[in-house]
UniProtKB/TrEMBL annotation:
Species this chain originates from: Brevibacillus porteri
Cofactor(s) demanded: Zn(2+)
Coiled coil: none
Catalysed reactions listed for this entry: 5-(methylsulfanyl)-D-ribulose 1-phosphate = 5-methylsulfanyl-2,3-dioxopentyl phosphate + H2O
Enzyme Commission number(s) of this protein: 4.2.1.109
Protein's name in the database: Methylthioribulose-1-phosphate dehydratase
SUPFAM superfamilies with a match to the protein in the record: AraD/HMP-PK domain-like
Function: Catalyzes the dehydration of methylthioribulose-1-phosphate (MTRu-1-P) into 2,3-diketo-5-methylthiopentyl-1-phosphate (DK-MTP-1-P).
Keyword terms: Amino-acid biosynthesis, Lyase, Metal-binding, Methionine biosynthesis, Zinc
Domain of life, per lineage: Bacteria
Family assignment from sequence similarity: Belongs to the aldolase class II family. MtnB subfamily.
Cofactor note: Binds 1 zinc ion per subunit.
Annotated Zn(2+) binding sites: H102, H104
Pathway the protein contributes to: Amino-acid biosynthesis; L-methionine biosynthesis via salvage pathway; L-methionine from S-methyl-5-thio-alpha-D-ribose 1-phosphate: step 2/6
Length: 218
């Protein structure tokens, strides 16, 4: 069964909302980023951003529906995001995922490079970890980091190997983050929580260094 017009329009409208919210935060520099919302599981179909668009704007040609092989369901001149395979990996790995968002920010890039040696970034005891749906006291989360392979099937395979249901995100080295959730509301909350944690940690390292330098020079 294929997605109905009503389901498509609902997914496109939700993508518009998420896209404009993230665009206001400058989370799509240089046309980077891609977003998807799942329409159905069996067979898998999801709405995804078209490749190379200015994601700070709305147009009638912003999204298309693709299948489990990341191929357009309808005849169209639009090209799905170059990274559609990664969205497909997320939906196939976690059938409860309903939306998947990808952004490039300075903070997620800095953290991905700083901790690439460990292939993971861990943080503990931050209130915003609850924004990831993890409510345990003094929780510690670990976000995997993969190499930024130019070959997207390779990148998608590497991501498939490291993503877990416990932490809804993966960093790509010097590239960006993929995060997901049960629906667009949850995926947005996860993305905001991750970005807060990355920025907090990077700024904390800077401030700590500044304090150490002042105390050692005085
Ligand atoms: C223009 S830099 C970003 C791209 O290389 C890619 O990483 C990206 O996020 C957007 O690709 P797109 O094909 O528009 O979905
Ligand atoms: Zn990207």
């Amino acid at each position: 069964m294929t997605a109905t017009l009503e389901q498509r329009l609902d997914a496109f409208r939700r993508l518009d909302d998420a896209k404009l919210t993230f665009a206001r935060r400058d989370w799509f520099p240089g046309t980077s980023g891609n977003l998807s919302i799942k329409i159905q599981n069996d067979p898998l179909q999801f709405a995804v951003t078209a490749s190379g668009k200015d994601k700070t704007k709305l147009s009638p040609e912003d999204y298309l529906v693709v299948d489990q092989d990341s191929r357009p369901v309808d005849e169209t001149t639009l090209k799905p995001s170059a990274e559609t395979l990664i969205h497909a990996v997320v939906y196939k790995s976690f059938p409860k995922a309903g939306a998947c968002f990808h952004v490039h920010t300075v903070w997620n890039n800095l953290i991905s490079e700083l901790y690439f040696g460990q292939r993971a970034f861990s943080i503990q005891g931050q209130e915003l970890i609850k924004g990831l749906g993890i409510w345990e006291e003094n929780a510690r989360i670990t976000v995997p980091i993969v190499e930024n392979f130019a070959d997207i099937p390779t990148l998608a395979t590497e991501i498939e190997k490291v993503i877990t249901p416990e932490v809804p995100g993966v960093l790509i080295r010097n590239h960006g983050i993929y995060t997901w959730g049960g629906n667009d509301f949850e995926a947005k909350r996860h993305l905001e929580a991750f970005e807060f944690l990355f920025e907090y940690h990077a700024r904390w390292l800077q401030l700590r260094q500044a304090v150490v330098s002042t105390t050692t020079t005085n």
